[in-house]
């Protein structure tokens, strides 16, 4: 956890990004810690621990699966992304397939997932923790959360004490299966009813991760064939995760960071899932409430009270001072998540959707639209909280996975086909994506309409809703979308060779090793630009070229120092790893540099136009001069180069982490 503190301290002070370093200057330790911390949020402490309390070890399968998929990211997807020269996932789709339809589709889908999973779930999880800690009203807590800001921190150390308290891991196994509420005492304490149809005993297979094909929580065929594609989208194609790895110095640091993050993904089973199970052992009458009326009195939800497992444990076991610290940690983590979601989603909507419709929108109009969209998202998310409370028997984490399972498998199919199959074209990808999206959104709407009834009432939902697990449906979406994409691609013209040359895994074979002298020649200018902006870098450029580029703003980025500077020094360049949301802040710094450069020319009118150019994202995109293609190829080859010794060590690490992941699956399934 100390590494996580160090990584976040560096990130929050070194760049406009609150979470990772600008430029391709991040080391594997920083990226690995950042990957882990960015994934573990308040929804994990509430949802993952709650599912552990409700169904045992099974939910840990997502963590061990992530351990393996992180290596797929480092060994397959990241080399392709680096080779293609892209920094965002919509940019990769646009470069690989062409056109704008897939970019808009991906942006729209990202916003839906932000609103209905991350934003609404974060609000609910944080508000629930405050409600349990302070006894405040749930929606009052949500309002306060939206109004507050904080820094991201992490904590740990509770598990060792709890394991001693219950007798170690074997004690957890034994006592969890005996954690049954005292029905007689509960009925005597209030006006409650109990129906045998309301399950209060732990499930017989609670101590196993992978379960039978008809299990209601995690059927193993559905998890492998359906949940894995949804997880591939998150770990290999989601901008939040990929962007951190793309900030690595080179491919060796990128791979090493995924190895480190993979090992760290072992921790949630022991620091979140097992504490959730211990919470049920210590508080069975509350966590395993006996009926809807009793659940309402305990946690305010008729579906179940498993979500209060972690906060109830913290409030009951930790000393008073540490309770406040833990609550501050939870709220701080949540505030960072909310701020990131607000910025990312509003920028995606404004720049990728709204500006596509209104190409001539002014900067003022885009900013207003972005702010209004944040308000719209907050309203929708708050209105969606009651749905989250009742979905998936009150298990928040499974709700997230269900929604993602209906929407993300088609995206995973498009990325996998784009990376591995050169014949796949834009028409096929769009048809496959739209087919999967139509089927998925239809099933999602039906799931919201036909909600799971109370445990003491008969289930009259349609048979395909009751008996077809969402993981099996996700598997069908993945394979149907892929099949449609393949068929349509084969029936239409193949993509241009230039379009697939650098955007597939097969193009990596064409990358040549860069000799040391070539790298030195390439960085001759960059190395001299280290001290300041006005110094040696400008001396390397002819006077007429400097003046021309300053006046017309065609290549103002040449006035910004190289990203090869000390990572601890703030960078004002819009780095390859910088998200669109951060371009607002970075562009202000570029404006200051541009003003200083143009001051001596006396061309106030031209400098004014230059300021307008810098603040207009559309003009930036149109005016940016492409780098020399040969220089790009040399830089990419340098980043992708691995010495034989480094490659051997990384492959040994890959074998080790994959073996650990498989072992954890086997150990918790026997």
Describe this structure in words.
The protein is mainly α and 670 residues long. The chain folds into two domains: 507 residues, Sodium/glucose cotransporter (Up-down Bundle), CATH 1.20.1730; 124 residues, no CATH class. It is 69% helix and 0% strand. It has 34 helices and no strands. The N terminus is likely disordered.
Write a brief caption for the model.
Helices cover 69% and strands 0% of the residues.
CATH superfamily of the largest domain: Sodium/glucose cotransporter
The number of E-state strands comes to: 0
Helix/strand structural class? mainly alpha
Residue-averaged pLDDT: 74
β-sheet strand percentage: under 5%
Instruction: Kindly report how far apart the N and C termini lie.
Output: 30 Å
Query: Which regions contain 5 or more consecutive residues with pLDDT less than 50?
Result: 1-22, 148-157, 513-517, 522-604, 610-627
Integer count of domains? 2
Helix content: 55-70%
Tertiary shape: globular
What is the CATH architecture annotation of the largest domain? Up-down Bundle
CATH class designation of the largest domain? Mainly Alpha
CATH topology of the largest domain: Sodium/glucose cotransporter
The main β sheet shows up as: none
How are the secondary structure elements laid out?
Layout: H1 2-14, H2 28-39, H3 42-55, H4 61-84, H5 89-97, H6 101-134, H7 138-147, H8 158-166, H9 168-176, H10 183-189, H11 220-237, H12 239-246, H13 251-264, H14 267-282, H15 284-287, H16 292-299, H17 309-317, H18 320-357, H19 363-390, H20 396-407, H21 409-420, H22 426-449, H23 463-467, H24 470-491, H25 497-501, H26 516-522, H27 524-528, H28 536-539, H29 543-552, H30 583-598, H31 604-615, H32 617-623, H33 629-640, H34 644-667
Helix pairs in contact: 1-2, 2-12, 2-13, 3-6, 3-14, 4-11, 4-13, 4-34, 5-6, 6-7, 6-18, 6-19, 6-20, 8-9, 8-14, 11-20, 11-21, 11-24, 13-34, 14-17, 18-19, 20-22, 20-24, 21-22, 21-24, 22-24, 30-31
